[in-house]
């Protein structure tokens, strides 16, 4: 049986990761704006030696940025729905511990009976096979 | 000799079984079960036996070769090792208050308590927390778009929500363990029954063939009296019947 609790836990952890990833995406790839007419968007000097990634914003074109945002939002909703589905199929929501213990005991009894029956059937089968064997031996090839 | 064994132990891919496996001979098993049956149930009848924890009656003064057949008491406390890490036997899940985390839900009846609580409200709380997570994230993004400096409070809220979710989830684990056990037993039961059924059917089939054979034999004997020529033909029928059944 699938361990639904662990699946659920993983899903929640993934949700947290997605939160971080979404914020990072918006933080990293947003467009640069001018606040007043005298402002200009400062062109970054592209120095070869410097690490270009870390602090600087890397603006995407508006439509690409929008698409990325949309996808991230959709993923968030999807993950949320997965979590809710997993919650709704948690095993044994209706049972409490006493019910479970009773069921387990009952099953144990039934298992014992079934095992006995199985052993008996195996014995019978062996007896019949032995009979068949003797009959076959007594038959001569034509 | 001793050294030789030591080396074998070190070289083996799997550890050798504990030495007492040799005590489990059929004779020893039957003798201990007869001893158990002979023992009056004076010690265990005082207390209402709890079937979940009940063990075979413990016998004192057993002969030496039977001593290993008695299961020892399960350990109550102590440490155990799993995948190289040490664990305590009784490691209770610390409550949220003990960890200094705000508890966001009224605690539902814990799955370990026997007061007949159902877990549907637990699922409801989980769903609520999941929704709150999403909402809080939306609020966080909103706040950060207006005033990025004020993220602290919302992040804290999200953190509390996540921890609450995990805590609630982990409280549910013993329950799921029992539930899995029930499912496993059910599958085993079904499998065992199917096997019995299969064996019975095969037995019926074989009996049918035997029946057919005996009829054939009778007929054959009759034919024998009448004329010897038909016998071979008749036997061929038998072989064909057999081939049909087993082929």
From TrEMBL, chain A:
<dbReference type="Pfam" id="PF11221">
    <property type="entry name" value="Med21"/>
</dbReference>
<comment type="function">
    <text>Component of the Mediator complex, a coactivator involved in the regulated transcription of nearly all RNA polymerase II-dependent genes. Mediator functions as a bridge to convey information from gene-specific regulatory proteins to the basal RNA polymerase II transcription machinery. Mediator is recruited to promoters by direct interactions with regulatory proteins and serves as a scaffold for the assembly of a functional preinitiation complex with RNA polymerase II and the general transcription factors.</text>
</comment>
<dbReference type="InterPro" id="IPR021384">
    <property type="entry name" value="Mediator_Med21"/>
</dbReference>
<comment type="similarity">
    <text>Belongs to the Mediator complex subunit 21 family.</text>
</comment>
<feature type="coiled-coil region">
    <location>
        <begin position="90"/>
        <end position="131"/>
    </location>
</feature>
<keyword id="KW-0175">Coiled coil</keyword>
<feature type="region of interest" description="Disordered">
    <location>
        <begin position="36"/>
        <end position="59"/>
    </location>
</feature>
<dbReference type="GO" id="GO:0006357">
    <property type="term" value="P:regulation of transcription by RNA polymerase II"/>
</dbReference>
<keyword id="KW-0010">Activator</keyword>
<comment type="subunit">
    <text>Component of the Mediator complex.</text>
</comment>
<dbReference type="GO" id="GO:0016592">
    <property type="term" value="C:mediator complex"/>
</dbReference>
<feature type="compositionally biased region" description="Basic and acidic residues">
    <location>
        <begin position="45"/>
        <end position="57"/>
    </location>
</feature>
<keyword id="KW-0804">Transcription</keyword>
<protein>
    <recommendedName>
        <fullName>Mediator of RNA polymerase II transcription subunit 21</fullName>
    </recommendedName>
</protein>
<keyword id="KW-0539">Nucleus</keyword>
<dbReference type="InterPro" id="IPR037212">
    <property type="entry name" value="Med7/Med21-like"/>
</dbReference>
<keyword id="KW-0805">Transcription regulation</keyword>
<dbReference type="GO" id="GO:0003712">
    <property type="term" value="F:transcription coregulator activity"/>
</dbReference>
Automatic annotation (TrEMBL), chain B:
<comment type="function">
    <text>Component of the Mediator complex, a coactivator involved in the regulated transcription of nearly all RNA polymerase II-dependent genes. Mediator functions as a bridge to convey information from gene-specific regulatory proteins to the basal RNA polymerase II transcription machinery. Mediator is recruited to promoters by direct interactions with regulatory proteins and serves as a scaffold for the assembly of a functional preinitiation complex with RNA polymerase II and the general transcription factors.</text>
</comment>
<dbReference type="InterPro" id="IPR044888">
    <property type="entry name" value="Mediatior_Med7_sf"/>
</dbReference>
<dbReference type="GO" id="GO:0016592">
    <property type="term" value="C:mediator complex"/>
</dbReference>
<dbReference type="InterPro" id="IPR009244">
    <property type="entry name" value="Mediatior_Med7"/>
</dbReference>
<protein>
    <recommendedName>
        <fullName>Mediator of RNA polymerase II transcription subunit 7</fullName>
    </recommendedName>
</protein>
<keyword id="KW-0805">Transcription regulation</keyword>
<keyword id="KW-0539">Nucleus</keyword>
<comment type="subunit">
    <text>Component of the Mediator complex.</text>
</comment>
<feature type="region of interest" description="Disordered">
    <location>
        <begin position="1"/>
        <end position="52"/>
    </location>
</feature>
<dbReference type="GO" id="GO:0070847">
    <property type="term" value="C:core mediator complex"/>
</dbReference>
<dbReference type="GO" id="GO:0006357">
    <property type="term" value="P:regulation of transcription by RNA polymerase II"/>
</dbReference>
<feature type="compositionally biased region" description="Polar residues">
    <location>
        <begin position="22"/>
        <end position="46"/>
    </location>
</feature>
<comment type="similarity">
    <text>Belongs to the Mediator complex subunit 7 family.</text>
</comment>
<keyword id="KW-0010">Activator</keyword>
<dbReference type="Pfam" id="PF05983">
    <property type="entry name" value="Med7"/>
</dbReference>
<keyword id="KW-0804">Transcription</keyword>
<dbReference type="InterPro" id="IPR037212">
    <property type="entry name" value="Med7/Med21-like"/>
</dbReference>
<dbReference type="GO" id="GO:0003712">
    <property type="term" value="F:transcription coregulator activity"/>
</dbReference>
